[in-house]
Structure formats: structure tokens, C-alpha cells
């Protein structure tokens, strides 16, 4: 059973990406930055923007699309974006981060967003997703097939192309949520150890994003 999850990554196409931090590095910060640029518009970007702005950090989101939280209900996306801005988060839409450079003071970062736009901030958080943890597992030696992102390719029973190898959770890059990984593992256990062939239906899985303020549809 392969259940190694996923990991944050630093996109190679951003020059100076080593000067940025990931959502893992956030928990290693020695002190709270006075300002931060967050690249991305998904779960991690919105959640950390809410945390940092709530702690009084000057927070900016840079997103390549028009409205954050792609994949969610558009009305809620627009509502959350507007409320974040009202709460002090600056959101830059339709931009890309091209380069991170060190400021002359040796501490701050200069983020180049294209068309001559630059921001000076204390930290740059790269919050643009995660990748499956399959590097150096030796899957190629076992003949296990992976896709272009390095995720283990499995069938509806979480079975790889190798008869004795299964995979569940984020390493399969299906729906990267902890409760989904748990149910995939439970289905595997029922199938392999209880003689109860079980699959997990990946359609219509509910998900949540933690934002400040929160938004609920159909509630007060």
C-alpha cells in the first residue's frame, strides 16, 4: 500500500523561487512578517491570507485568474473575494509572479508581477498546490505506472497496474482531501481483508475553505 501523500513545491518557472516560502515553511517562521504576498487563489492561499491579515499583516493575494477559489460556486467566490478586500486583503487578479529578488537591505523581497509591476514585501508565500510524494520511491523498478504529475495511477479499487500494489490518498491525485483518503483506505481494507468489494464514489464530494469572514449558502 502506497500512502505517502503529497508535498508543497516551488515552481521552477519562477526565477528566484528559493526566496519564497511554502505553506510548510510558514510554521517555521521565527517572527511574523509585516507584509506578505501570497501567490495563488485556492484553499491554501485564501486560508493563509485570512490568518495573516487577521494577525495584522499587510496581505496581498496575486492570482492568475479573475476570481479566487476556482471550482466553487461563482456567487460565493465573488462574495468571499469582496469580503476579503473589505477586510484589508489586497487581491491582484490576472497576474503572474515572474521573479522574486532580494531587496538591497538583504531581508525584504521584491516580487515582479509583469508589466513593470513590483511589490516589496517581507515574505512571499507560494500557495499554488501540491504534488504527489512519489519521488525516490523506486516505483519505476516495480513497474508501477504514474501520470504526468507523478501520481500513482489506480482503478476504482485503488489498485495500481501491479497486482500486489495499491495506493490511496493524495499520492493518487484524485481528490486531495484527508476525509477522502480515509474513506479510500477503508474501502481498500473492506475489499482486501473482509471479502467485501468496496469502492469510494469520488463524485459530489463536499469540501470547505476556511476564510475570514466565513460564507454559508442558504444560512444566516
Write the layout of secondary structure elements.
Blueprint: E1 6-8, E2 35-39, H1 43-54, E3 58-62, H2 74-86, E4 90-92, E5 99-102, E6 109-112, E7 118-121, E8 123-126, E9 130-132, H3 139-142, H4 178-193
Parallel strand pairs: 2-3, 2-8, 3-4
Antiparallel strand pairs: 1-9, 5-6, 6-7
Describe the structure.
The protein starts with 5 loop residues before the first strand and ends in a 27-residue tail after the last helix. 30% of the residues are buried. The protein is globular and about 60 Å long. The chain has helices at 43-54, 74-86, 139-142, 178-193, and strands at residues 6-8, 35-39, 58-62, 90-92, 99-102, 109-112, 118-121, 123-126, 130-132. The strands form 3 sheets. A 4-stranded parallel beta sheet has the order 4-3-2-8. It has a 3-stranded antiparallel beta sheet with strand order 5-6-7, with no helix packed on it. The protein contains 4 helices and 9 strands; from the N terminus they run ββαβαββββββαα. 20% of the residues lie in helices and 16% in strands. By secondary structure, the chain is of the alpha/beta class. It folds into 2 domains: 6-129, FAD/NAD(P)-binding domain (3-Layer(bba) Sandwich), CATH 3.50.50; 134-193, no CATH class.
Amino acid at each position: 500500500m502506497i500512502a505517502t501523500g503529497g508535498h508543497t513545491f516551488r515552481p521552477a518557472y519562477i526565477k528566484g523561487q528559493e526566496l519564497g516560502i511554502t505553506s510548510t515553511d510558514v510554521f517555521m517562521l521565527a517572527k511574523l512578517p509585516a507584509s506578505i504576498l501570497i501567490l495563488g487563489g485556492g484553499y491554501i492561499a485564501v486560508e493563509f491570507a485570512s490568518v495573516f491579515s487577521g494577525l495584522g499583516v499587510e496581505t496581498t493575494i496575486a492570482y492568475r485568474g479573475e476570481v479566487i477559489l476556482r471550482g466553487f460556486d461563482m456567487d460565493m467566490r465573488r462574495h468571499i473575494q469582496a469580503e476579503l478586500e473589505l477586510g484589508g486583503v489586497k487581491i491582484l487578479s490576472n497576474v503572474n509572479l515572474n521573479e522574486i529578488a532580494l531587496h538591497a537591505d538583504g531581508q525584504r523581497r521584491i516580487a515582479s508581477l509583469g508589466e513593470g509591476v513590483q511589490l516589496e514585501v517581507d515574505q512571499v508565500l507560494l500557495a499554488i498546490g501540491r504534488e504527489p510524494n512519489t519521488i525516490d520511491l523506486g516505483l519505476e523498478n516495480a513497474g508501477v505506472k504514474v501520470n504526468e504529475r507523478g501520481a500513482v495511477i489506480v482503478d476504482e479499487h485503488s489498485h495500481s497496474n501491479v497486482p500486489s500494489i495499491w495506493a490511496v490518498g493524495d499520492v493518487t491525485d484524485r481528490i486531495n482531501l484527508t476525509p477522502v483518503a480515509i474513506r479510500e483506505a477503508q474501502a481498500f481494507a473492506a475489499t482486501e481483508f473482509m471479502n467485501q468489494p468496496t469502492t469510494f464514489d469520488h463524485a459530489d464530494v463536499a469540501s470547505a475553505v476556511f476564510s475570514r469572514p466565513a460564507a454559508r449558502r442558504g444560512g444566516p
